[in-house]
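BUG-499 | component: ligand-complex export | severity: low

The export step for zinc ion jobs runs without errors, but we want the raw record kept on the ticket for reference. Input record follows.
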Amino acid sequence: MTQVKPGRASSRYVAAMTGTGEHGPGGALDPWDWWRGTSELWRWGERVREIWLDDLADDATRSATRQRRIAGLLGHARENSAFYRTHYRHLPSGCADLRACPPVTRSQLMANFDGWVTDPQLRRRELEAFVRDPSRVAEPWLGKYAVWTSSGTTGVPGIYVQDPDALAVYAALLTTRFEFGPMVADPWQMPGASARMALVAATGGHFAGVVWWERQCRLHPLLAAHTRVFSILQPLDTLVAQLNDWQPAFVGSYPTMLALLAHEQCEGRLKIRPRAVWSGGEALTAADRVAIADGFACPVVEDYGASECMQIAFGCRHGRLHLNDDWVVLEPVDEDGDPVPPGQPSRTVLLTNLANRVQPVIRYDLGDSVTVDTTPCPCGQRRPSVRVQGRRDDVLVLDGAGGADVRLLPLAIETVIEEEAGVHRFQLIQTSRNALCLRVDAPGARQRAVACRRAARALARFLKAQGVGAVELKLDDCPPQVNPVSGKLRRVRASAASG
Ligand SMILES: [Zn+2]
């Protein structure tokens, strides 16, 4: 799994996140931002036109468009990426058969980063320094690229670079394909000029969601004036007070967070009237969808994306996620890498992003288990839909210092341990009500002990700030355990038995 984890935007957003200052990037518009905004608008318009044409096309034309894009990407990768040139050395030249291409993993690509990217000016070492600085979130790298990071569950942090064309494709897919359902008469009014937006997100790093939002805000000052980012790392009552103050018409967050907020709304503590909420970054369960839609009395818009490709699938009014299969190839496979037919859950899925040329993602092992559904959807969309399984960890419920329940989001816990302790491969298990067990992976006993202590300190600070009462935190010498059935590492688990 790769979570698209929105995070803190630049330092200009700190005041907004704490709810104490001006919202949006503010200040004078950089002429270069204006120029980029104008040129992006042109690219966006061109991509919207292509998407509409594809939506109207017959199946044979769609298939030909996709095959042309696959051939173009493979040719480009072999010509301009040293990594792919070597990786595909056994393939005949001009090969356009995706299935013939050996898959890739994040570890492989990150280990060969400078040879993977197709722009020789991109260097892993320089990008690592860039993403360590939270004040530079959404700053265009080399004047044109968007850069974000992701940890996923493999423990190997990823750095993703998106070129202007890919960004235009994501923006065009976002604006053309989403359905708000029958509860909204005119979806175009939704993000209208006066509508306030709230992104409730993990903070503290260059995560895709917030890089995306702040980038849009830099390019479009009107949007910036109506957008605020709120941190999921703060106590829930603080967040509720900030949202009551901001009164957003549109709220974007993770389903676990939205479910918590819907509960607060039902209890009367949260008093907002959003016209729509956007759910992403984790799997949205049917129960959460109902709870969120009922709690806010508005439609829930869902998408399926990853740091490797922001727009893999879009939600329709019937709760299905339809593939953007004109720009994405998603191949569900079993443990041997063989294709899994529609209707059956896969072990993992191979992702090919047809939009981004600067860092080609071709048959990339994404780690998600998906089930493809090719049966007709009542919405009329001909594109197949996918169900994504197990793409989330557990919400932990602990006793608060005052006796009330404190709910902790898995993404908040993961962000704290990753960003504050620099530990990526870990596992936190709730063994009883206020007892937690922490496992950390690091080479060598000494390094593991140091990483474990760092993670425990960051976690203790976080628990205290959330108002959690006394907690027994046990450090376990055993490394994190992957689920023997799925082969995946679930980093935050509500019990030792849940796998
Ligand atoms: Zn549908």
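Assignee comment: Attached the raw record above. The longest strand covers residues 300-306.
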